[in-house]
Design goal:
The chain is of the alpha+beta class. It has 25 helices and 14 strands. The chain has a five-stranded antiparallel beta sheet with strand order 1-2-3-4-5. It has a five-stranded mixed beta sheet with strand order 11-10-12-13-14. The longest helix has 24 residues, at 482-505. The model is unreliable at 407-415 (pLDDT under 50).
């Protein structure tokens, strides 16, 4: 975690007028500044920024807060991400508590500098990038480099006094530490959303059978939750309210070079449910832009099915056979026009599912109908009828053939009881896993009345658990900053320990002496909780 002292030091140098002035046009009015509110539509300025109080307030929609809150809201960031964003804006070096993986991120920066220096020493690697059409400015922007031989890398690690255990933990070396993860490859640093290097990918220039490889998952990197290029694209996505998702590094880099700066890529995996919380937070129109080969079309079909049933607006853009976005940019074609012709998700799902079958063959047609029915079962009720009617028109069959009977248990799931207080804690831990080690000292699953199963899933890092995803993908459940999180936990613990008091009091298996001892312990916990402190979850019985 970031040291509180470090956060306070950062706050002392932040000027809220400078921060907000990067996003809206401020006009001096008396001792304050005013602007049109960025959080709601208005014609007369009602958004006021106070440089003396270092706060903002909108008299139209009621939003208010400090510079950190503003960055969280405007950039859709967590508290920690907002702190790190502000630190980067002010070139301020944050300090982290020991044991936090981010304390070692400067190690990845040093490794990246080594890779960058080697790119310009390797003529083949540099020529490859130039042949792909990359400008020098693009190579510099994306900090591309080259990982030399294993011997040269180990020599650098030794001379730079880089800790071998840290190199293994962060993925630079393999699990045994015997060799670097990337050898004789062009390197692509993978950044967190706020611009910190968290991993690397590499592209062979020696005809290795694995053309591209990524780091395996580490404490600070999960490739199923990461979009390559999002650190560069975030502001453009928020402004345009559109995101383009491609298959690879070069697609993103070439699209950005061509001026399409809202492009990102998944990392060697198809779009998964784990990517959805990021997309939900950004709330953009989603354009899937994969290769037009069979693998690309199948991946686009899978992504479309996932996004459509989660109510995302958007569609799919297909390129000429055998070409990807990077190829189109290199050829100098007007790629912006291509992106205007997307196929909406439902049409893409239907058209490309049907293409797998010969509809003149009754057996094939039945198989197509069965595939549609299986997908319709997964859809929310509000989407089922529209999709069934549209698919039936393509299949030239009556819509009732595709109708799926809704089981009673599905209706129960739609009305599943949600405890907002518990759910917000779970969602916060899901999106900020680095704080779990601290929180588990105070909160254990059995302390929850409703979502104990989901809290246990978070602690076990079972991030694809369906019940857990039901919570984290809901827009009405908000993430909390660390102060609010701890206060929320404290409020939940008070009735929990009060209940424990009653259980002990009426427990016939305990002697009076044991009861007195346990009740005293719990009473001390309640006193601390009511004073605003958290207490360790060492439950007496």
């Amino acid at each position: 975690m970031i040291k509180q002292e470090s956060i306070e030091n950062l706050k002392s140098i932040i000027d809220i007028v400078d921060v907000i002035g990067n996003y809206v046009q401020l006009k001096k009015q008396g001792s304050n500044f005013v602007a049109l509110c960025p959080f709601h539509s208005e014609k007369t300025p009602s958004f006021v920024v106070s440089p003396t109080k270092q706060i903002y307030h909108c008299f139209g929609c009621g939003v208010s807060g400090d510079a950190i809150k503003f960055i969280m809201e405007i950039e859709k960031l967590t508290y920690k991400e907002a702190i790190e964003k502000l630190a980067s804006m002010y070139n301020f070096k944050l300090e982290y508590t020991k044991g936090n993986s981010f304390i070692h991120l400067d190690l990845l920066e040093r490794v990246n500098s080594f890779y960058i220096s080697n790119l310009y020493k390797n003529e083949n690697a540099l020529n490859y990038l130039k042949q792909r059409g990359l400008y020098d400015s693009t190579i510099e922007k994306f900090q591309l480099g080259y990982a030399p031989t294993s011997h040269e890398q180990f020599k650098f690690f030794k001379n730079a006094n880089l800790n071998k255990k840290d190199l293994i933990e962060l993925g630079v070396l393999n699990e045994s530490g015997e060799y670097p993860r990337l050898i004789e490859r062009i390197t692509f640093p993978i950044f967190s959303q706020n611009g910190k290097i968290i991993a690397f990918g590499g592209r062979t220039i020696t005809n290795h059978p694995a053309k591209y490889i990524n780091f395996t998952n580490t404490k600070i990197f999960n490739k199923s939750k990461t979009f390559y290029g999002l650190n560069f694209a975030r502001e453009h996505i928020l402004r345009s309210k559109k995101i383009i998702i491609t298959e690879g590094y070069m697609d993103v880099i070439m699209l950005h070079q061509a001026g399409i700066q809202n492009a990102v890529a998944t990392l060697g995996t198809a779009l998964t449910k784990e990517h959805l919380p990021i997309l939900k937070k950004l709330n953009p129109k989603v354009i899937i832009s994969y290769d037009s080969d069979s693998a690309g079309i199948n991946a686009a079909l899978k992504a479309s099915k996932l996004l459509y049933k989660e109510f995302f607006d958007g569609g799919v853009v297909l390129f000429e056979e055998g070409k990807d976005p990077a190829d189109i940019v290199k050829e100098g074609k007007n790629i912006e026009n291509i992106f205007k012709n997307e196929i909406d998700f439902s049409s893409f799902i239907i058209e490309f599912t049907i293409k797998k079958y010969d509809l003149k063959n009754p057996i094939h047609k039945k198989n197509a109908i069965d595939e549609f029915k299986n997908y319709i079962k997964e859809l929310p009720e509000i989407l089922k009828d529209d999709f069934s009617i549209k698919a039936s028109q393509y299949l030239q069959i009556p819509p009732n053939i595709l109708k799926v009977k809704t089981k009673h248990i599905q209706n129960l799931n739609l009305n599943k009881k949600i405890d907002i207080a518990e759910a917000s804690i779970i969602k916060t831990l899901y999106e900020n896993p680095e704080i779990m080690d601290e929180i588990i000292e105070y909160l254990t699953p059995e302390m929850f009345n409703t979502h104990f199963y989901e809290l246990d899933a978070v602690y076990k890092e079972d991030f694809e658990n369906p019940k857990l995803l039901e919570i984290v993908l809901r827009d009405d459940i908000k993430t909390l900053d660390i102060k609010t999180l701890k206060n929320q936990i404290r409020k939940l613990l008070i009735p929990y320990y009060q209940k424990k008091q009653l259980e002990i009091k009426y427990n016939k298996n305990l002697s009076n002496e044991e009861k007195m001892h346990y009740l005293k312990e719990i009473n001390l916990k309640l006193i601390k909780l009511k004073k605003g402190e958290l207490v360790e979850s060492d439950i007496p019985i």
